[in-house]
Amino acid sequence: MFSRIMLGVSLCAAVASAQDDGIFEKIQIHGGLSQGFLFSSSNNWLSTDSSNGSFRWNDIVLNLTDPLTEHLRVGIQLHSYMLGEIGQQKIAIDWALGDYKFNDHFGIRAGKVKTPLGLFNDIQDIDVLYPWALLPQSVYPADLRSFHLTHTGFVAYGDIPLSHKLGTISWQGFAGERTQDPDEGFALDLAESGVAVGDASGPTEGADVRWKTPLSGFIVGASYQRTTLKAPDALSDGVATPAAFRYTTFDYYVEFERGKLKLDAEWNIEPGYQRIGTPLFTYLPSRIYYFMGSWHFTDKISAGSYYSHDWSPEGNHDPSDPNNYTDDTALNTRYDFNRHFYTKLEGHYVRGDADSFYTVFNPNGLDKVSKLFLAKVGFSF
Fold this sequence. Notes:
- It is a single chain.
- The longest helix is centred in the N-terminal third of the chain and has 19 residues, at 2-20.
- This protein has a single domain (2-380), classed as Porin.
- The strands form two sheets. The chain has a 16-stranded antiparallel barrel. A three-stranded antiparallel sheet has the order 8-11-12.
- It has helices at 2-20, 145-149, 185-191, and strands at residues 28-40, 57-67, 72-83, 91-103, 106-114, 150-161, 168-179, 195-196, 201-212, 218-231, 235-236, 239-240, 243-258, 261-269, 272-276, 282-284, 287-296, 301-311, 325-336, 341-352, 369-380.
- The protein is 8% helix and 54% strand.
- It is mainly beta and 381 residues long.
- The chain is built from three helices and 21 strands.
């Protein structure tokens, strides 16, 4: 694993050097890598052996964009990662697209494109842009990153300037197809119930609208998404059991940034339904929210905290059952050594186990409370 990380460092450094030397004039090349360490007091987080300390958490991205004309841009991003047993350091295409911007009011990008949803979905692959080692897992789960990040299809977008007293409306609408990665958390979760889901794909559509208010740094927005997945080759205990999944997401968010202070909050309602080998769908409700804040003490040092709550009952609606909820309180600090290197330290106090824990990686059972420490070192260019 260490040799792979060093190879990634060497590659990123070489590309950054070539960029600085002017070898690439029009093509813009960016990327980064990060190496993390996890340690938890009891429960193993996701598919890692975090209760014994684990370095099996890294991420490498490399993207290239080329402005072919004043209006047309093309680009691609490659991604390789490991998160315990997830990822396995495979090289995959995160996104690959063409983007044509007619004017400030209308543009369209097509291909494998980022899905506009909530505050962080379309930037969650750029670790350097936010201070958190982990975004709130209730909304941006690390074990479902590639599924949530992109879809194959199109995104139309534009800005509608209002009067100086009313600000600007930015809008995006999208449609296409989503495919579940068979090595990510969706398949792992179903495997615990004896279901081998196989291929799971289907149509998705939605929209995002955000209002950049006349109050400087204050944004209010809402997102909508509907997705239907079919898994015709699913097996339950070796028996053919066609499956279907559908869910609708209603997401509302606010952001305020002024000087050294940044505040965010997001509320997510996601009624979901699944059908595995039966004619009837099972209703799986979800109610999620988080609020966070961070403060830049200097250009190099920041600190922050967030609280996230996820209510996702399965089977029963007992509010005292830890299988039905997750409350996560996080404390974080970040230090930027220079414009390329940074480090993040973060602690989590987690109550409940609706998110982020798999019983197969916790054979002795799950504790109601778990404490998680994370350290991450990153390089970006």
